[in-house]
Design goal:
The structure is a single chain. By secondary structure, the protein is of the alpha/beta class. Helix content is 40%, strand content 23%. Strands 3, 4, 5, 6, 7, 10, 11, 12 and 13 form a 9-stranded mixed sheet that branches. Strands 1-2 form a two-stranded antiparallel sheet. The chain is elongated.
Length: 308
Amino acid sequence: MSASADDLIALLVFARVVQAQSFTKAAAALGISKSLVSARIAELEERLSMRLLLRTTRRLSLTADGLALYERAAELARAADLATELAVDATGEPHGVLRVNAPVVFGEMHLATPIAKYLEQYPRVRVQLQLSDRFEDLVEAGVDVAIRITSKRNDSALVGKKLADDVSIVCAAPEYLVRRGRPATPQDLLQHECLRYSLMRVTDEWRFHDGRDSVSIPVDSHFESTNGGVLKSAALAGMGLVTLPSFMVTSELASGKLVRVLEEYKGPAFSIAAVYTPAKRVPRNVRSFIDLLVRHFEKPAWKPTSTR
């Protein structure tokens, strides 16, 4: 059975719904009504005699049949994006939807300004920013550019550019240090309340280097969270010590709301990079956005500080 023009349109709509995880957002990206998006999906399910999506008031998920079909529909969507990009090449102006994925706190704190600059420079682009602390599969999630914060990029299927470097630091609210004392060595952390990041279990240990030796301290906590912003708020409330990237706490250190400890011991260093799926021809949207990010973060505002 050959696909009709209506089938191709329905598949493209289906791919956009999955990528946006929302009928409303997919409709906005496609420039059509939400009711038309729903009708296209219903027609596709009826024609194929299979359920593709499971919908609740809060969540949209794929059935097994839907997942298998999406793998093909995503290829169609990428081909459509590439065709659109080729069509506007003559003007040299980026155009269309740019899907960006970034860690939650980094996106909230540091991406609004460069995105605003980008949209001012390229008004024909529409940016969709997805925030998640998990490493998304760029192809499966329909992401064009992802911001990755890691000590090493372990996905050889991706390419990209480093935006900046950063380092983890240990800090706490002044009232906590008055109450519990200030740790002088990493080993002292065993006597402290350590607020723990729990997205990955490797964070059960805090690692340090004093210029000669490395040391890993197993930390225990009465409070942990999968969100760094929540951990910072807990530290500000005097709940304990926290280790966070300096890009999250520079202003709090400068104001004295948080105090850095163990300054002579270096925490883990890491890089912030913009990555994308390699292609023979990188879309203008992707190239221009990454180039702007590189320029924007040449002098990051969070350079590690010695504020105490």
